[in-house]
Every structure is written in C-alpha cells, then in structure tokens.
Predict the structure of D-malate dehydrogenase [decarboxylating].
Amino acid sequence: MRRYSIASIPGDGIGREVVPAAIAVLTAAAAKCGFVLEFRHFDWSCQTYLKTGKMMPDDGLDRLRDHDAVFLGAVGFPGVPDHISLWGLLLPIRREFEQYVNLRPVRLLPGIASPLRDKARGDIDFWVVRENSEGEYSQIGGRTGTGENEIVVQQAIFTRRGTDRILRYAFDFARRSGRRHVTSATKSNGLYHSMPFWDERFAAIGAEYPDVAADQYHVDILAARFVMSPERFNVVVGSNLFGDILSDLGPGITGTIAVAPSANLNPERRFPSMFEPVHGSAPDIAGQGIANPIGQIWSGAMMLEHLGETEPAALVMRALETALIAPDIARTPDLGGNGTTAGFAQAVRNTLLGL
Amino acid sequence: MRRYSIASIPGDGIGREVVPAAIAVLTAAAAKCGFVLEFRHFDWSCQTYLKTGKMMPDDGLDRLRDHDAVFLGAVGFPGVPDHISLWGLLLPIRREFEQYVNLRPVRLLPGIASPLRDKARGDIDFWVVRENSEGEYSQIGGRTGTGENEIVVQQAIFTRRGTDRILRYAFDFARRSGRRHVTSATKSNGLYHSMPFWDERFAAIGAEYPDVAADQYHVDILAARFVMSPERFNVVVGSNLFGDILSDLGPGITGTIAVAPSANLNPERRFPSMFEPVHGSAPDIAGQGIANPIGQIWSGAMMLEHLGETEPAALVMRALETALIAPDIARTPDLGGNGTTAGFAQAVRNTLLGL
Ligand SMILES: CC(C)[C@H](C(=O)O)[C@@H](O)C(=O)O
Ligand SMILES: CC(C)[C@H](C(=O)O)[C@@H](O)C(=O)O
C-alpha cells in the first residue's frame, strides 16, 4: 500500500481548527482510494514562542526534512509581533526547503458568488505564480540614527537564479496547463533597480517560449484589472511581495479569501513542499469552531496532486464542490450560513464517501 | 482680480489630450467666478528625452518653482524605459517640491456603476493618503556579479521624519474631514525592518489623536477587503508603494481608473503642489481623441480647492456630476459611449456655465 508521511503544523488561531477538519476529509479520500496518509503533528506556534522564546526547536527544520510534505494551518497571533512569528516558522520553511514557487489558483467555486457584478464561474479562473524565497521579503537592512534622525533601510534582493527559475516555472506551467499566456507584475517605473531587472529577465525567459503569449503590467494597474477584467488572465507571475498581494486580491474577487489554497513547491522535489490556505490565523474568530475549512481542504487536494495522487485529489475537489451546492449543507458564517468547521468538513467527507 | 500661475505639463500620450480638455473647463469656472488661471505650458515628455537625452532641461525644476501649482497629464511612453522617464520628470518634481502627500479620493461618481455587485454611491467613499517622497521608490541599490551570478539589490529608505509627517497628515485629515478613522497598510509579517517601523510610528502618532479610530491590515488582505467591504474604510494611509497599489485598486472598484484624480501636496506650501490623474499615458488609445478627461478635470477641481477656490472647485465637480447623468451626454468609449475627449469636456463646460 502507498504510504505518505505528512508533517502537520496547525500553528495558530483557526489553523488549529481547520487542519484537523481537513485531515478528516483527506484521510477518508486515502482510505477510499487505497493509500495511507501518516500525519505527524508538530505543535509549533506563537504559544511555543511565548513558552520557549522560539517558534520551533533549533532542529525544527531537520525534523520536517524527511516528510513527503508539510501541511500547515496558519502562523501568527496577537502577543507575538508578526515579523517574529513568521520569520521564526513559515518563512524559514519556505526558504530552507527551496519552496521557491507559491502556486495559487484564483477560481470561483460553485455556490459562492463573486462580489463582482456580472462575473460567473469561468470568468474567474487563473493562477498566480508567486516567487516564494527571496525578493522584497528580506531580513537585510536595519535602523540607524535615533529619535528624529532615525532612518530605516530595507533591502530587497533579487538573484538572477531566483528570478529565472520562477519565471521559467510560470512559462512551463502555462505550457503544461494549456493556458498559454503569462502576465508579469512589474513596477519598473518606480522601483529603479529590481523591477527593470525583473522585466529584462521576463523578456529573456519569455523568448524561450515562443508558443506562450507574454504581457506585463505595473502592479497598481494590474490590481485594478483583477477587478475590472479578471477573465483576461491565465497565469500571473509576480515577485514575493507582488505575488502575495495579488494572490489575496484574487481570492477577494472569488467571494472570500477563506476558500483559497496555496502550494509552496520545491519543484525539484529535493525537499518537502508545503500546503497551506491563503487565509491567516483569524484571531477574531479563533476558538469558536466556525472557521471555514475550505481553504485547508483545497490545500490538501493540492498536496495529494503533488504526491502524485491525482485521482484522489480530484475526488476531494468533486466532493467539496458537490457539498457546496447541496441544498441542506450547513455553511460556515463567512458564507452566510450557521454551520461549524467540523460540521462542514463532515459533510464534505460524507459526500466524498458517497461519490 | 485673483490670479494664479499654473505650470501645465501635458507630458505623454493621452496627457496631451486630457490636459487641454480640462483646462477648458477650469478656465470657464475661473471666468464665471471672477479669477484668472494663467497656464504656462511646458512641453516636456518622452519626446524631449528622445531628442535631448533628458526628460526636462537641467533647470526644469527651477522653472516650475515659482508657480502656484503644477497641472500634469501623464508621463511615460513606449520607446523610453519607464524608470528613465519617471525618474526624469514626475518623481523629481514630487521630491524636490516636498510633495510628500499623495491624496486620492475613492468615490463612485453618479452614472458610473461599480463593478462590485450590490455597491452603490455612498458605499464607496474613502480617501487614500499615500506617502509620496521616499520609501520603496528609491534609486539606491544596483547590480553585482554577471551572468548566472548576477544579484540585484533594491533599497527602500524610510525616515522617521518622512514617516511621521505622512501619518500625521492622515490623522489630521481624518479629523478635519470628520471621518475619524484611519486604516494603515502594513506588511510587517514579511518586510522585516521597514514595516515594523511603520507600525511603531503609526501607533505612536495615532496615540496623539485619541479622537480618531485607528486600525491596520497587512496590504494583501487589505487589497482583498477593498473588494469585499469597501464601505468600512474612511482614510487609508500607506507607504509610497502600498499607497500606489491601493489607490489604483480603489478606482478599479469605482468602475474605471480613468476618472480618478490625485493631488501631490506640499502641505506647508513652501513649494508648488502638483495635480494629475491616476491613469497613465495610455499608449493604446493615444492620438485618437477618445480618452476620458474626467480624471484630469477632477484633478483640476482638487487644484482649485488647494488654491483656496473652494466654491469654484465645488462648481466644477457639480458640473461634472450633472453632465454625467444628463441623458444626452456623449461619454467616452471606456464608459460605454462614443464621445470624444473634447466633446465630453465641452459638455461639462456648458453645464458649468449654465449652473
Ligand atoms: C508612473 C508611476 C511612477 C506613478 C507612481 O507609481 O507613483 C503612478 O503609478 C502614480 O500612481 O502616480
Ligand atoms: C503570513 C505572511 C508572511 C504570508 C506571506 O506574506 O507570505 C501570507 O500572507 C501568505 O500569503 O502566505
């Protein structure tokens, strides 16, 4: 029997609720399809930080290294500054395991209306390919001077290797998925060094893919176009920061960011990839059992896909989409219902077992 | 008679069409209200660059310095790299004249539908206050290494003085406008030095305004919230880059970025302020006489307001809003009509003269 060892890190806030809910669905899919998912749980979170001064143990990354994948909930909670919690857990995993691709679908699910007038399923269906390991997210820089004279420097680092590999991934993905059109997010009119370089590499790599159409927009107007004409996008590639913004805005136009998944991929498979929803730990609703588990379940489907379990991945998505349009389904409050995290996941699980 | 000397820089592309159109409206308002706008034209553009190697003459800034305001169209055109054209004209004006506030209304105009389902006038009505002189827009940095080993460094510089003054402007503006709620755009979970500093200053300055509510969101989720719940915003303050993105996205949710204005303000009035639409030079439609002049006209109204001509400013806006709902008005193609730039401006002018 095929076995996969998965490191699960529920993390903070609603991560602790949606991860078990999603695992219930994934485990059912595995049982039905004849393979085994072995989850090993790592209870690393802002609580860990408050107790030990560290988000994870010193050998944390080594403990994850031998798993087939990492299944993460959410990181960050009031009481621990965000740059401490994220640079102590999520970001080191992305970097150490060279998960340089952050892949995020922007797609309307059935039964969830877009906030955009006149846009239905099919109108909103594209992918954001985000650079996930360098760029604007950087710990290089610091403060100098005091009081009125204080100056803060923040450096962004773009390497040719890091830039080329994400652009190449985007073009390969566009080719592979049959959506032969890549749009680049730039801001070369304002950011004097980084983005002209990004544009240069986009042109150079694009030239290697004559069968894939390429265009680019400054990120400001691109954000506006996500709202005005989402149907024109297929694959959108952006730097770490631009990809981050665009891949939250994307879910925004699909009705709720609670449903959006993401895959942090090490395409070469030298290291485990990591799967997590786009949403955060949502302190405002944490502990109530009402968080929407869809983003976590969908992330789980992307994980199965990455593990090579293509059929089971499709089964999970079919169960999710079927459950979403069932008349009696108890949706979570963010989708206008009064259901619970566990109840909704249970319904997806039952639907799946019946398919 | 009150006289104002205005430096007009139509710039590139549709800037050359919308600036004269807007001037026709503003001049009519001045005539009707008994003051004089003296426009002096500066023909600086990418054409200038292609001829002379510079976007403006060496003493360009000095030639602008003694005007009461600068009225700008758009800068940038294919054939000149964007970072060359913008750092050669627009950005030096903003910096040299300490126009550290970029103020942009996000407001639905009558007769223009939001692309957001269920959002009507009143639901979308807030202001973006953008830092306009430092931060992520920086020429500091460069490239090192060659070929596969190339590395590009881009520095962002945040000064305490620059950060405090924009935050203070935002809180003052919120107080003055009676919309006592400021939302800060941050990304302190990813950007390790700059944004924790920004948050710290936001908290410190906010404490000086106990009568103004303050909250903050990471820019990714904030972008999604612009789409999901625009009605909850009043004054949104952001860094140069975040403010740029949010103030294009804002107009995106109001139906078209063609109508959005901006004011580049030197609040101390030591230097001229500059007024320009949010849209760019739109090479794709330049030269056809069909560009929408609303953003430029609205920018002109903000200029009159800044000059202290409050009534005339309101008159221009009333004329614009009245014209927009007149049944026989010939709207420009971006608004679904078949009118021309000059024709639409003429209609606004006639409406104004009849008010
Ligand atoms: C043209 C560009 C440099 C400019 C900016 O980013 O500031 C524009 O997008 C704006 O918003 O005024
Ligand atoms: C939590 C934060 C550091 C993270 C990011 O910006 O990468 C999140 O927003 C995401 O998109 O995964």
Summary: Residues 1-99+270-355 of chain A form a domain with the Isopropylmalate Dehydrogenase fold (CATH 3.40.718.10). Residues 15-33 of chain A form the longest helix (19 residues). The pocket of 3-isopropylmalic acid (ligand 1) is lined by residues A 189-190, 220; B 76, 86, 90, 244, 278 (CB under 6 Å).
